[in-house]
Write a structure and sequence with these properties.
The protein is built from 9 helices and 4 strands; from the N terminus they run H-H-H-H-H-H-E-E-E-E-H-H-H. A hairpin with a 7-residue loop joins strand 3 and strand 4.
């Protein structure tokens, strides 16, 4: 798993949500609150439509980010069928896809953020441990007597309690090998967390299923009756016509 792109793409997907998810949450929440307040005033219908558009833009970014793991999530919003601002507002605010966007961006944000953050808190320190030989010599850690020594201490940072000093190349290489084994197992958890997050995104951000899809498929398929070219009828009439 470590030599495949899957865990690294999953890391980018999870880290991107940790960074951008909070921004989308704040922007979408503010847009919804402002839209609810402005919807009480008929002179601000255009601003209310703009609030809905802001939520849609945030959801579109999340649909595009899915390409880091799988493929962009498809979408289908309700088309405007009535002219004027009232028609636009009715089409935007009665669209079920808009409420699904709000559910993903606002209601599920704390749970998705917790999932991604906990996964990265386990995964990223393991990657740092794999790279110990590259940076352990540039760090000074506090010892129990209050002084500082060159190297990294795996344990409490104040030098008290159980811990392991990584201050030599053999110790760094040994610790790196141990972290590499742990990271090999943790990579499966990272990919699983990204797939779980993506499954939630697909459930809410993709177009809702069409209840008439099966009926439309049957109607579009060829039926049991097929047209066949007519054959000439043999008989006295055909022979008589041939003689004439």
């Amino acid at each position: 798993m470590l030599v495949s792109p899957a865990p690294w793409r999953a890391t980018g997907y999870l880290a991107g949500y940790v960074v951008a998810g909070g921004v989308f949450f704040a922007v979408a929440t503010a847009a919804v609150v402002v839209g609810i307040v402005l919807s009480q005033l008929t002179v601000t219908l255009a601003l209310t439509i703009g609030s809905v558009w802001v939520v849609r833009c945030c959801a579109q970014v999340e649909r595009g980010r899915a390409a880091l793991v799988d493929a962009p999530i498809p979408y289908a919003y309700q088309e405007v069928t009535e002219p004027g601002l009232v028609g636009h507002l009715k089409a935007r605010c009665t669209d079920p896809v808009f409420y699904r966007d709000c559910c993903y961006l606002i209601l599920l944000h704390p749970f998705l953020l917790l999932l991604d953050a906990l996964t990265l808190l386990v995964w990223l320190p393991l990657l740092a441990g794999v790279c110990l030989p590259l940076w352990f010599w540039a760090v000074e850690s506090r010892q129990a007597d209050g002084g500082f020594a060159e190297g990294v201490r795996l344990g409490r940072s104040d030098g008290t309690g159980p811990g392991i000093w990584i201050d030599t190349w053999p110790a760094a290489l040994t610790a790196s090998a141990v972290f590499l084994v742990l990271a090999a197992y943790a990579s499966y958890a990272v990919v699983a967390a990204a797939r779980l997050h993506l499954a939630v995104a697909h459930t809410l951000l993709r177009p809702p299923p069409d209840p008439l899809a099966e009926a439309k498929r049957v109607l579009a398929a060829p039926g049991p009756l097929h047209l066949t070219p007519a054959r000439p009828v043999a008989g006295p009439a055909a022979d008589e016509g041939h003689r004439t």
